[in-house]
């Protein structure tokens, strides 16, 4: 395949088609207001992305319950009072011709108590002195994900992406190491996947026929088992419970290091699953037009741009203009980001990664 193939449209099971194969990954930016309301910086960020040539743009992780907050200035979608700001974001993206999705999130055991978060682990052993969620509390959080999706639809977003990665609550429940429950949400792999499946099924029932559902999945750390996740994903794809799978890989070229799939590319473990009408994409150090096109050859339907989207808000347009395009080299000066339109709050968040913002740069 050539770079030109990245600009072919892609139909989804529900709603309008993607106009090309570029999706913006959900990017933590810590630039919302302290109560979860969309800030002027959020609106400016969405306006920039709306003109960037993406087929679909995901928001930063939006917490579905106030107690599920993970980090300072996190976007919220847990109350109707958030709707005006969310609506403005959706309107901006639609005006730019891109599809839109809110990433739905709950931190679970990783909720930050210093920000009003309430750690809610799957297991009694996760945090000393912190009890596991009751069955009724699991069901309440499930319903909060569904309520968040309904708010996203009311705000005018084309869909939602369910955050099932990085040890957050849905990912945690998948882990045999972190979930030792004895109710319907723990034990065998079917029970550990139940939480995620009920969220997906509930959102589909609660929203309209054109509403799109994505799922972000990571494989590394937190006791997650590759073979189990592959089997769960195969079931979800076979049942067409989602429109697209977003594989959050640290590196899209990474190789499985252990177990029965040792030596295979992590990407191939999932792209070889029969997907029926579901689309599959992946993130992970996609820094050149050439690598993006290679991912289509390796079985992806679309690619997710993360760092490249921060460095150059119109990354897809850059690729379309130059088949040899490569993103700017990291680390960059803070002034480079500032001059490109990145907010000071976002820059301060990025300073947490020395490989991204050059230490000491102003």
TrEMBL record:
Domain of life of the source: Bacteria
Keywords: Flavoprotein, Oxidoreductase
Protein's UniProt keywords contain Flavoprotein: yes
Residue ranges of domain NADH:flavin oxidoreductase/NADH oxidase N-terminal in the record: 5-320
InterPro entries: Aldolase_TIM, NADH_flavin_oxidoreductase, OxRdtase_FMN_N
Record keyword Flavoprotein present: yes
Classification via SUPFAM superfamilies: FMN-linked oxidoreductases
Family annotation (CDD domains): OYE_like_FMN_family (cd02803)
This protein's name: NADH:flavin oxidoreductase
Source species of the chain: Promicromonospora alba
């Amino acid at each position: 395949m050539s770079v030109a193939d990245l600009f072919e449209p892609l139909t989804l099971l529900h709603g309008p088609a993607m106009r090309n194969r570029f999706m913006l990954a959900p990017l933590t930016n810590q630039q919302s207001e302290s109560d979860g309301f969309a800030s002027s910086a959020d609106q400016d960020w969405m306006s920039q992305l709306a003109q960037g040539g993406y087929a679909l743009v995901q928001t930063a992780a939006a917490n579905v319950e106030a107690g599920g907050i993970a980090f300072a200035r996190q976007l919220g979608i847990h109350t109707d009072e958030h709707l005006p700001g969310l609506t403005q974001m959706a309107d901006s993206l639609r005006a730019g011709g891109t599809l839109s999705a809110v990433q739905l999130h709950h931190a679970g055991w990783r909720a930050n108590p210093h920000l009003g978060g309430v750690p809610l682990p799957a297991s009694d052993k996760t945090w000393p002195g912190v009890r596991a969620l009751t069955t009724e509390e699991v069901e309440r959080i499930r319903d909060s994900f569904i309520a968040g999706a309904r708010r996203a639809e009311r705000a005018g977003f084309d869909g939602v992406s369910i955050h099932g990665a990085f040890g957050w609550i849905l990912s945690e429940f998948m882990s045999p190491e972190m979930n030792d429950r004895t109710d319907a949400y723990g034990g065998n792999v079917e029970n550990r996947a139940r939480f995620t499946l009920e969220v997906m099924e509930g959102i589909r029932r609660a929203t309209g026929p054109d509403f799109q559902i994505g799922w972000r999945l990571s494989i590394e750390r937190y006791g997650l088992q590759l073979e189990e996740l592959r089997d769960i994903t195969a079931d979800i794809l076979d049942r067409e419970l989602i429109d697209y799978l977003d594989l959050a890989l640290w590196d899209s070229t990474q190789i499985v290091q252990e177990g029965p799939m040792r030596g295979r590319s992590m990407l191939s473990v999932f792209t070889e699953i029969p997907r029926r009408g579901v689309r599959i994409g992946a993130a992970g150090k996609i820094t050149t037009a050439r690598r993006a096109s290679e991912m289509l050859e390796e079985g992806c339907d679309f690619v997710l741009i993360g760092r490249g989207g921060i460095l150059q808000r119109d990354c897809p347009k850059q690729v379309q203009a130059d088949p040899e395009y490569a993103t700017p080299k990291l680390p960059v000066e803070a002034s480079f980001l500032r001059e490109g339109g990145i907010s000071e709050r976002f820059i301060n968040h990025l300073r947490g990664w020395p490989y991204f913002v050059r230490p000491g740069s102003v």
